[in-house]
Automatic annotation (TrEMBL):
Segments traversing the membrane: 7-29
Superkingdom to which the source organism belongs: Bacteria
InterPro entries for the chain: AsmA-related
Keywords in alphabetical order: Membrane, Transmembrane, Transmembrane helix
GO terms under biological process: regulation of protein targeting to membrane
Any one annotated GO CC term: plasma membrane
Species of origin: Nitratireductor basaltis
KW Transit peptide (keyword) present: no
Identification of the protein by name: AsmA
Keyword Transit peptide: no
Amino acid sequence: MSLARKAAWSTGIVVVIALLLMVGLPLIASTQIVRDGIANQMSSWSGYRVRLDDTPEIEVWPTFRAVLNDVTLLDWNTRDPQPVVEAVRVEVELSALAALRGDVVFTRMRFIRPLVRLHGDRRGYHLPSPRDWGRLARSVEQAEQMVAQNGEAPAARALPDDPLGAIEFVDGRVIGAQSGTTQELITSLSGTLDWPALNRQASLNAKGIWRGEAVDVQVSSAQPLLLLAGSSAAVDLSVRSSPLNLSFKGTANLSGVDFFDGDLSASTPSLGRVMEWMQGVPAGANRVGPVSIAARMTGQNDRLKFENAALTVDESSAKGLLEIAFEQGEPSISGTLAFDQLNLRSTLNTFAASHVAVAARDGEGSVDQRINVDMRFSVVNATYGSIALANVAAAAKSRDGLATFDISDATAFGGSLQMGLRVDRTGSFDTLEVSFSGEQVDTAMLAQKLQVSALLPRARGSFSLSLKGTGRTLDEILSSADGNITAEFGKGEIPGIHLPSFMQLSERGDFFALSEISEGALPVDTARLKATVRRGVADIETAEARSPSHVLELDGLVPFAGRGLALYGTLTDERTPEAAPLMFFVGGSWASPFIAAFNPDAPREQ
C-alpha cells in the first residue's frame, strides 16, 4: 500500500471517529449519563443524597459537559432530610472517552451561587456527616488503615488514585444553623479546588467576605489525602486581608490534636482591629499597631511555640521565644523577648488591650474571655514619650482579671527607676495599684522632660510613691486612693520660690499668688517629704527644705479630687534662732495657689 493511500485511510478513520463522537455522545449522554450517571456519581463522591430538580442540558461543543439547574445535596435523614449544599446551577465537564465506555468521569465542576449549610454546637460549626460509603470517605479510611498498619505515611503510588479534577465555586455563601436560628458566616465566596487525583497534590484558592472583611486564602498540600487521614503532610498556607496577613510553610497534622512545624509570618496594621475581627466584638485597642512576627512555629492546636521569633510592635523590635496556649478556651501568651529599642507606651497599650474583656458566643449566651499574659522583657534602650531609659528589665502578667506590669530596673536621669502597675477587674469596680520609685535621680533632668518649671527640687535624690484606689475612671480611683509618698533630695534648688520676694510680700499681710514670687529659686542643702494618702487626700507629715540661711516647713492636706490645697507653713531664719518664725497659709488650687502670712499669736483654726 502506497504512502498516499495509508494517509487517506488514516484521515478517513479520524473522520469516522469524530463523526461517531459527534453523533454518539449525545445519544450516550441522553441515555446513560443523564438518566443515571450524574446524580449517582455526585452522590458516590460526596456521600450525600443528590437531588436534581431539572433535566440536565448536554453540550458537546466546545467541551463535553452537562448543565444542571437547581441542584441540592441532602443528608440521609429519612424523616426530614435537610439540605447541605444548594446551587442555582452546576456545570459539569465530563471525560468524552469515559462517556463512550458508559462511565461518568468528572474533569471539572462549576457551582454557581452555591449555599452551604453548617450545623452548630458547642464545638463550633461543621458539615453534617456524609455516609461512609462515599468515595472520598472510603479513600480517607483506606489511607488511615495504611498509616495504622505501616506506622508511617505510605508512598503516593500506594494511595487511592481516583481522579477528581477541579471544583470551582462562584458567588457562594456559607451559613450556620444553631438552636433554630441561622447566621451568615461567609459571603461572596469564589474560588477553585484543584485536585487532579486523590494521590496527587491539591491546591485551594478562595476569596470571600468573613465578618465584614475581604479575605483571600491560598493553600496547597503535596498529600492532602494523608492530611485528611490524620497523617503529616507538607502544607503551604497564605491568608491575605486588611486586618491580617499570614503565611505558613511547613508540615501539618490534622488528626484531632493538630500538629504544626514550619515557618510562620504574620502582620497587622492594628492589633485592636485584629482582636475585634477575630472575636467579633470591640476590643478597645485600636491605638495598638502595627504588629508583625516571623518565627519557626511548632506545637499543637492547644499550645504553639514560636522559636527564634522576630517581633515588631509599632517601632519596637525584639527577638526571643514566645508560646501561645489555649486553656479552657482562653488564650495565653508567655515568653522572653530581648529588645534593642522599645516604645513603652505602645507596650503598655498592647498589654492593656490583652486585658480588655471581650464577648465570646458559645451557644448559651456570652462569656468573658481575656488573653492571659506572662512575659519577660530586657531592653537596651527604651522610651516613654520623650523620656529615655536604658538597661530595662520588665515583666507583664495578666490572668483571670488581674494584670501587672513591672519595671524591676531601669537606668534614667543619672540614676535608677522602678515602676509597678497592678489592675484588678474581678470586682464591681476596677482596683488600681501604682508604685514608682527612684534612686539618685537627677530631678533637674526629670523636670525638663516632664516640662515642670516650678516647685520640683532640682537636685539628686531618691523618692517613692505607692497608691491604691478603686473606681470606674482615673478621677474616681485617685479620689479613693490610699498610700504614701516619700522623697529626699541633696544640695540643689527649688525653682519658683524667690525668698526675698516671699518675705517682702508676707510682711504686708495680704494674700498673694505664688506666681508673684516665681521669678527665682530657693537654694537648698537638703529637702524631705513624707505624706500619707487616705481616701484621695494627701496628709503632709513632713515637708522640709533647708537653705543655707532658712528652714521652710509645710504640713496640711492636699486632696486629689478638686486639686485643692490646705497647707500651713513656717519659715525660720537660722541666723536668728531667737526670732519667731514666719507663719503662712497656702490655699487655692494646684494650678493657682495663693499664700497668706498670719499672726503666730492668733489661734489656729482646727
